[in-house]
Specification:
The chain is mainly α. The protein has helices at 24-31, 35-43, 72-87, 92-106, 120-133, 137-151, 200-208, 213-220, 224-239, and strands at residues 45-49, 52-56, 154-156, 162-165, 180-181, 192-193.
């Protein structure tokens, strides 16, 4: 599926998959994850154990820790992590152990964004988590199915690299159509209506300012359902 817009080399030879492009707040907004959770996953956090202060190391190595800023590849990794948070609020040490296990088994450094996650990686990851936190067999099957739903929202190129992400636009993820997309080569990865370069944030701003769905649809050459989905995505993300 195309996303519109010209794909000129505005990245000066750098891979847009790994360029720092999203703030923590933006990423939390897109993935419908609380900002505090996003911060812990990406920057870690200090905590007290008795009289000692300890540190939870982050689960994802983000593109720029100083800013901080995340890449499109980071968003993909966090999208996969969000699947586990939605169903089982698994503690960070268990998730980290499962990621390390998966990395060793698959022989890749960043398994959460790798194409193998959709096949054997998904099963290995869930099975290892089940062992670590004692998730029942039924719970593992449920989590595997949920992870597959998340993984199928990622489009990849022939080499297996993630090139598009279709974030969820509804509370019931099974009801979410693939109408909103992130493509790092279109609008610098901002959420847009699929097949266009129209950012959802611009549509939502105009809607908040009082413009009707019908007027916006006519102005952008879109159907009313597409405009509604863009607004729904922005509103549900803001409420997360």
């Amino acid at each position: 599926m195309g996303d519109g817009g010209q794909e000129t080399d505005i990245y000066r030879g750098k891979d847009p998959l790994d360029l720092p492009a999203y703030s923590l707040v933006e990423c939390a907004h897109i993935l419908q994850v609380p900002a505090a959770t996003m911060r812990t996953w990406t920057l870690g956090r200090h905590y007290h154990a008795g009289q000692q202060e300890k540190f939870w190391h982050p689960l994802v190595a983000i593109a720029d820790r100083k800013t901080p800023a995340l890449s499109f590849r980071n968003v993909i990794e966090l999208h996969v992590l969000a699947a586990m948070r939605r169903q089982h609020k698994i503690e960070m040490p268990a998730v980290r152990r499962a990621i390390v296990y998966l990395s060793k088994r698959l022989g890749i450094s960043r398994p959460l964004s790798d194409q193998q996650m959709l096949t054997d990686g998904k099963d290995l990851f869930v099975e290892q988590l089940g062992k670590v936190v004692n998730i029942s067999r039924d719970g593992q099957l449920e989590m595997r199915d949920l992870m597959e739903v998340y993984l199928l929202r990622i489009d990849r190129d022939p080499a297996g690299l993630p090139i598009r992400l279709f974030p969820f636009t509804r509370t019931r993820i099974e009801d979410s159509p693939k109408l909103i997309v992130l493509n790092p080569r279109v609008q610098f990865g901002r959420p847009c209506i699929a097949g266009t370069g129209i950012p959802t944030s611009i549509i939502a701003e105009r809607y908040r300012a009082g413009e009707s769905i019908e007027a916006l649809a006519k102005d952008y050459g879109q159907t009313s359902p597409n405009i509604q989905e863009a607004i729904r995505f922005e509103f549900i993300a803001a409420a997360a």
